[in-house]
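Notes from hallway chat w/ T.B., transcribed later so I don't forget. T.B. wanted the structure written out for a chain they're using in a teaching module, and asked if we could keep both sequence and structure tokens in one place. Agreed to drop them here.
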Amino acid sequence: MTASLTPARAGGRQWLGLAVLALPTLLLSIDVSVLHLAVPHLAADLDPSGTQLLWILDIYAFLIAGFLITMGTLGDRIGRRRLLLVGGLAFGVASVVAAYSTSAEMLIAARAALGVAGATLMPSTLALIRNMFLDSRQRGFAIAVWMSAFTGGVALGPVVGGVLLQWFWWGSVFLLGVPVMALLLVVGPLVLPEYRGPTAERLDALSALLSLAAILPLVYGLKGLAGHGFGAEPLAGLAVGAVFGVVFVRRQLRLTDPLLDLGLFADRGFSSALGVMLGSTLAMGGMFMLVAQYLQLVGELSPLSAGLVLVPPSIVMIASTMVAPALAHRLGHGLVVGVGMVVAALGFGILTQVDPSGAPALVVVGQIVVSAGVGPGMALLAGIVIGSVPKERAGSAAAISETSGELGAALGVALLGSLATAVYRAQVVVPDGAPPEVAAAAQDGMSAAAAASDGLPTPLGDALLLSAREAFTQGMSVTLATAAGATLLLGIVSIVVLRHVTPAEHDDTEEASTADTSGATTDTR
């Protein structure tokens, strides 16, 4: 009787399945950053307008964020493995179309398809981990592996892109997805379990449309705030998103089988973990943006060199993520997450001390400390979110978790980016004798000031460039000091609020007596 109440431990087949799930996760995170290096090459080939180029860059992330909730719930209803394989096939086909695009419009359409396909992959991979690993300790380690794949992809994106563009044409960056998805389609059915909710109902199409109508304008507005500051267009986007968000929530409360089960937020562990995750990704999103700009605009590093500088912090984050489950088992999830946030706050404090020389050493040290602190929290918080819900809601919970991360990163870029821009504009000094158009350009930002300085006589150009670097560095320091304070507060909140929270509330021990520990877990079809 005792044995039947013990969660079944995963066997070799589940661990092989985890390796298969890590591959699309790695690819998706690489795809977020790899395209930026290819922009000059594809712009020369396809000659897109400025607006088209922005859509080429942004539509992928927009549609991933917009479709996550819909796809997470869809996987719960039609089968998570089925949705993963369909999404993998679509991602592979769209990758080929993107690689061989002959016009800007064709590439935008392919990137849109990649975003929709990516939204099917992200929640499916995490939800399947929930089904494959019933034991909470094994599941914690599996989620750490999954999170490490995502982190590693972010770091590898610029490096892989730089290598490919050194030897091949711009479309090669998209072809990375083809062999990965081919492997998923061949091996996935053999090692991954199928699962769908036992009472799966038809997806509510109106709710899906309302979720898109809420999230897409919100993300658009946040990106507009980051790029152009407070203006009518981004504020209108935020307002439209908020209105549709209210309508979406009201509909979910009326439905007997909603697209998004708002009752999940009543769970203290679920809602607290999401809140801390949102705050930490907000701080990280702002930091990544500012550090990348600092290295390239102030330090004058190439995108590839800047990407290489960021590899050591990513390695540290992966290492800290992998040790997090063992630490949490000994010390408790709340303490590990909270202390990690305090360490991250120290790292943000180190980053406030960078100077206008552009030397990368202090940036690397600060980011290593931040990464060491944030890494454990990302894995443990995702584990709390997934482990706090019944298995039939895992897809929806995974989608909510990843939507929180997407919105947190967008908020970080918008809010912290706006703060940095405000400080920059207050601090930059245009030297006497510079034309009015140069003064206007200098107020636009560091990159515009650097471009304007090239057209000035050497003394004036050097003076403007020095002032712009000092102003940018000051703005970065003030912004990251704010992030340090917010992260320190998150650490204290995590220690207090999450001290009794673990991801083991729904271990589904009743499945232990029937689960096949050598193969796939529950297969409800």
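Follow-up for T.B.: The two ends are 28 Å apart (CA to CA). Might be a good example for the class.
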